[in-house]
Amino acid sequence: LDKSFMQCMLTIIGDYSKNIEKTVFNSSSLLYPKVLESLEQNPRWLNSSNKPLLIVKPFHESEIQAAILCSKEIGVQIRVRSGGHDYEGLSYLCKTPFIMIDLIEIRSIKINLVDETAWIQAGATLGELYYKISKASKVHGFPAGLCASVGIGGHISGGGFGTLLRKYGLAADHVVDAYLIDANGRILDRKSMGEDVFWAIRGGSASSFGVVLAWKIRLVKVPSIVTVFSVRTVEERAKKLFHRWQYIADKLHEDLFIRVVAQNDGSNSKQIIQAFFNSLFLGGKDKLIPIMNESFPELGLQAKDCIEMSWIQSVLYFAGYNNWDPPEFLLNRTTIYKSSFKAKSDYVKEPISETSLEGVWTMLLKEDTLALLIMDPYGGKMSEISESEIPFPHREGYLYNIQYMVKWEVNTIDESNKNLKWMEMVYRYMTPYVSKSPRAAYFNYRDLDLGSNKHDNNTSYSEASVWGSKYFKGNFRRLAKIKTKFDPQNFFRNEQSIPLLNI
Ligand code: FDA
Question: Where is the FAD-binding PCMH-type domain (predicted)?
């Protein structure tokens, strides 16, 4: 198969032979393991046997077009990888033979301050984008995720949120144009792909429709001074404050974002639960303190807890660096907390009682490796955007997103099974306290336990609705309708791609 693929590439791109060694790698190539593993952000999959037949690392869009056409010709699937952060490894793993297209070299960013937009190629990371914006302007930013190594390609195609979500919504809410390569190798922009497809790729899984080459985004305004704080609380106080936080976090001033990260200390010995209240405020601390005194006095925030800084320093701070580190640190493409993990997500619509929280607190204490609950508040701009504006539907009425995460360093099957079991137990326990019918989940926190497509390309719409309605609610049918028209052969498919309506 790999010979036929190479031959096809040579036929499509005449002078390709000069570049073939730099661009296409098979499993006997010395660079194959290096290229494959460089961006695998979850080492849990390192020993997987579901590896690509060939890796294509294009330097030019014509190589992506050719790779699509040649994969089709030899009858194998493709997987596209931008930043490699997929929670289930779907950008670089597949049970049937496949070609992986790695977009790491397709990553230019062009900022245009005149119309406050930017064109970003899909292989760029959030860190590269934030860095470039800060070099061009001190009063512009972009509302997307916290982790600098996340790829723009996957992130925007699943929604994308971070510290600016209460003020500005999702990354996908700010896309104004895109280049998409379809199953016939055509490069389409917003006009030529049409408004339906343009709607679908912004949060509705672009990998079901084609390969995104670049997004055009609208930048947002940020003040020259912002304030951050991180207040650590433990045990009973942590629980009481988290309980209280649920009543106010989505109703705070939209310039104020306070997330909660509750965690054990990941050890076998006597553990304690800590909850960190991490916050970004779009303004100075003289404005923040009175707001906090009025809306969340229980936290007891004081001026000494607050640090004023520029927006780009706050990006470093939330990405896990020090705010005094140089912004160039954001250009590092490796996740700084890289270890094997499993995560799941939920949405909460009614505050959970203290007694019920006690149960999940006890479960955190039982786990002997690092286990976290990450709570991101919604409200603000998120409640103003309709559920069907883009495919991401979790808007008004959702108090916060909760992400359960367990991480481990020893990559053995026993360790992995133990932690997966723990995760199942927590998820089962939380059932009565989270959204229902459907139990909503965030697409970018991909979770194959929710269900997956069959490998014979024969999954019906109703079978896929089991997981699809959780991610997309009522938008799932529209996504399937658009998919059926745009990619009727279902060439762009994976374990959780949008199904055809007519199966
Ligand atoms: P990756 O390359 O693995 O792609 C993910 C999916 O998108 C795959 O199905 C892939 O095929 C598809 N895809 C990628 N590029 C494509 C392209 N050009 N065209 C079409 N399809 C493409 N989320 C969040 O909202 N806020 C946050 O703060 C964080 N933080 C975070 C930290 C860490 C450490 C991880 C591992 C993940 C997050 N995430 C997150 C989740 C993240 O948004 C999600 O995993 C994204 O899909 C990652 O996009 P990548 O391009 O990096 O992944």
Answer: 48-222
Q: Give the best-scoring range by mean pLDDT among 19-28, 258-267, 350-359.
A: 350-359
pLDDT tens-digit map of 456-493? 778 999 999 999 999 999 999 999 999 999 999 999 99
Ligand 1 centroid – CA 212 distance (Å): 13
Residues with CB under 6 A from ligand 1: 41, 79-87, 90-91, 103, 122, 145-147, 150-151, 153-155, 157-158, 160-162, 206-207, 211-212, 335, 444, 494
Dist. CA 452–CA 497, nearest whole Å: 9
**In whole angstroms, what is the distance from residue 228 CA to residue 258 CA?**
10
- The amino acid at residue 438 is P
CA dihedral 72, 73, 75, 76 (to 10 degrees): -50
ipTM above 0.90, yes or no: yes
- Going by alpha carbons, the residue nearest to atom 44 of ligand 1 is 444
Ligand 1 atom 28: the closest Cα is on which residue?
A: 145
pLDDT higher than threshold 70 for residue 233: yes
pTM for this predicted structure: 0.96
| Residue keyed to tokens 């760029």 | 124
Assigned token pair, 250: 């989505």
pLDDT at 17 over 70: no
Concerning whether 131 is annotated as a catalytic residue, the answer is no
DSSP codes of every residue in 163-208: TTHHHH--SGGGEEEEEEE-TT--EE-HHHH-HHHHHHHTTS-GGG
Report residue 15's pLDDT band, with 50, 70 and 90 as the boundaries.
low
Percent helix, strand, coil in the chain (nearest 5)? 40, 20, 40
E strand segments, 268-427: 274-281, 307-309, 340-348, 371-377, 400-408
